[in-house]
Design a protein that fits this description.
This protein is of the alpha+beta class. It has a single domain, classed as Roll (2,3-Dihydroxybiphenyl 1,2-Dioxygenase, domain 1). The strands form 2 sheets. The chain has an 8-stranded mixed beta sheet, with helices on both faces. Strands 10-11-12-9-13-14 form a 6-stranded mixed beta sheet. A hairpin with a 2-residue loop joins strand 13 and strand 14. Helix 4 packs across helix 7.
Length: 290
Amino acid sequence: MNKISLFLAAYIVILLSGCSSDKQSGLPEVYLGHVDLILDTATVRSIKSDDFLTKIFAVSFSDTTNMAGKPSYDLFLIGRENFFHISEARGFYENQAGGLNVVMQSRKTGMKDSLMAAWKKFTESALEVNTSTGSGYQLDEILPLLNWKNLTQSRIIPFISTYSSGMYEKIGLKDSLATGVTMKTFIRAEAGPPVDNVLFKNIEELYVNASEQENKILRSALLASGYEESAGTYTHKTSGKIIINVKDNGSLNKLSRMKVRLASSTQPLEKTYNRLRVSIKNDEAWFYFE
């Protein structure tokens, strides 16, 4: 290759890089908030009965909600900076075992329009807003336009969410409305002092199995959330790394494994919860979904 060709190739790379960085300039500040995991009932019940995961590893609570007229059986494992929302693959999530939602959360409140505009920079897919209300607050979740009744197998859905100012006021963060808060501050205000003592610090790595279409929409959500891309690996300045393996063979588990950073070193542990295997050494915990 001659010098002119080399310079031309370098120039093209710079132009392409510039296009990506231009799109990402001025994006709202967003973090990886939590992951929604849809697991088989036997695995969820095994987790619920385990004192280590539900009392030492995380703060936990169970809930049953109504979604589109069907029950959702949920378990929450709350860490210091992230949490897991685990749903049983029955009721609303019938036949969806292995499904995954990757849920981003904005630093500031009331960012629905800005987040929607940011995501549309990276996708031509239709997006929708799911709005839910609580006592004195509102949660807006932006996600791909879906027919929820047609979800009958494992799948990946990215969400970018934002709370109204009422939520921050409710949990004692009114003084942070102008600047926003980190996930650590948000969870501490919401979950209270018990979360200070758990081992679960944050999600450090997610290894995702995605179809071509799922990869496109998840990629767009991650770029809109401030992630940088390199050969299928997405990194963020303050959130966990996400590695996407693109495969269209109908992989049951959309999340194959997950690395969690612990708040302190602990004794080694190897334990199986039906189709989930947990391996802990020092200050790392690995979750393998089988």
